[in-house]
Design a protein that fits this description.
By secondary structure, this protein is of the alpha/beta class. The chain is built from 23 helices and 20 strands. Bound molecules: thymidine-5'-triphosphate (TTP). Thymidine-5'-triphosphate binds near residues 39, 87, 91, 121 and 172. Thymidine-5'-triphosphate (TTP) binds near residues 23, 91, 177, 178 and 182. Its cofactor is a divalent metal cation.
Length: about 625
Amino acid sequence: MALNPVLGKLVSKRVVLASASPRRQEILTNVGLRFEVVPSWFKETLEKSSFAAPYEYAVETAKQKALEVANRMHVKHLRTPDIVIGADTIVSVDEQILEKPVDKQDAYRMLSRLSGKEHSVFTGVAIIHCSSKGNQLETEITDFYEETKVKFSDLSEELLWEYIHSGEPMDKAGGYGIQALGGMLVEYVHGDFLNVVGFPLNHFCKKLAELYYPPPKHTVQHIKHDSIPSVDTFENLSDGESESSNFTEHKGAKKLNSSSMCPSRPVYNCENSSSVRTDSMVPLGNQNGASESAAKLPSKIVDLMDGFKASKALFVASKLKVFDYLKTKGPLKAVDVANEVGTSVCGTERLLDACVALGLLEKTSQGYSNTDSANTYLTSDGEYSLHGYIIHSNDHLWPLFTNLESAVREGSRQNHRAFGRKAEDLFKDYYHSQEVKQRFMAAMHSIAHLTARDVATAFDLSQFKSTCDLGGCTGALAHELIQIYPNMKVTVFDLPEVIANISYFQPSEQCAAPVTFLSGDFFKDNLPEADLYILSRILHDWPDERIHVLLSKISAVCKPGCGILLAEMVLDDEKKSRSTALLQSLNMLVQTEGKERSGSEYRGLLEQHGFANVKIKLTGNLLDVVLCIKT
Ligand SMILES: Cc1cn([C@H]2C[C@H](O)[C@@H](COP(=O)(O)OP(=O)(O)OP(=O)(O)O)O2)c(=O)[nH]c1=O
């Protein structure tokens, strides 16, 4: 089994791990899988006696965890993932299933049952492939389980309690963690160690190999020593799946004349356009007749090299309002789209075809039409439209990013290079013209609206009677808060230039209570009184010195028990993951003096101003949430 190509199949897919288990996240991150974490809300309460065997319980629970996340993302966030992975680990001893202990006594009961005996650890795994057909979620479920046998030594009462008091047992099946202190209790392990820790990686990769590389009809033995599989297009060389391909599809190998063979490079067969890609599971012969694996273009790197072209194709199609025309008039032929938007037919056809390949449009004999997600996110007037942000990305961020090299060399923003004027103040830059201001507000509104529900529900905020969203712009989050907490008094405080332009963005249906909009500068003016101050995507705009000014102002008006809620992309402490957030930090470099920060960095800033009990919630959506309370 070749691991990289198997995991590489997932590179181009939106993969979601439906688990809060840090161990599962680590196991999958360690092998380079890129995924979002959306913990499942499925309660592990299936009736155990209704399952003939313990592993059936684990598999069913894993499946339900994953299905809950797939459904929630589809319905609530309108974001259908490609793959959702769920897992459930249980310990089975004397026909009994042990899950996580509910308290120390429960941990004691579990560990004393395991003492001196062999038990089984089962992890059930569900891999759910999702697609959305006309707003319906369609799923294809693959599941499996893995068993590992573990034997404990005889545990003395003293050792047992010492272990329980360490706190380690509480979030682990059977009440122990083999990877840490619990390892000292173990006499032997038969089977996959990682399965005990929560995820049977080896079996998972084999399952993916089965799914993505089912045994080819014409297998390796049909290939002669002097033959190599041929490839056709650049695209087919990547080991990532194309959007439209089915996950069970297997592309067979074809023969190519040995004279065109070059073992160290991918081989193109220009004559045969119907030939297919090399597959690393098919051995290649080299000139000496020895077997050698094919050199392949690394799909991840190819995707990155192409990323800017894909972004620009999306930006241009959005700018030309292609998605708006197709929503109202589609399906349309390229010539009709070109006539509508006033562009060349040949250029338009290529743009539309690229959008089809990128999964934004569909193409049939009738012509081009929008996909569901283009209708939802890419038309300019939809409730969840990202059009504003896309235009902002094209007109503002693109020129800034073309100066990324200078930004990295100089360590500072590049507004002067991109726009020929010296940046005075971030927001003065945005608000110097009505057009730029409205574009920026539309961009901020679209992100705030799409993340508002997750931000507003990350913590129970019912204890706060009044809230002030500092820099709350169009009030997208404020309106969501009132939906969820109808008795909450919500104020948005933002610059006068912003408040003067909010009317376009107000919801047509009135909320239970209206949002109050107040104009002012939170660095200069008095802050309105509130129990909770919200700073959503504000701190990332500023360097630490300015943040201290703002936090000390808030701290001065905040009574004990009142709080601050931050909504930001929170980086992990090692700053290794979430490319969206780390790229956003480059985005802050090219245009501000701010940056994205880690949970510890936010905690450190807040604690210096008398805020404690700092809790961080990773929402799985674009913005994470930090809540803290004034002591
Ligand atoms: C036996 C054993 C379990 N565990 C962990 C793995 C799992 O995280 C946990 C079993 O609980 P699970 O319910 O499988 O998983 P979870 O609650 O941690 O996360 P989620 O339900 O969101 O997926 O026990 C260890 O870390 N080490 C061990 O030695």
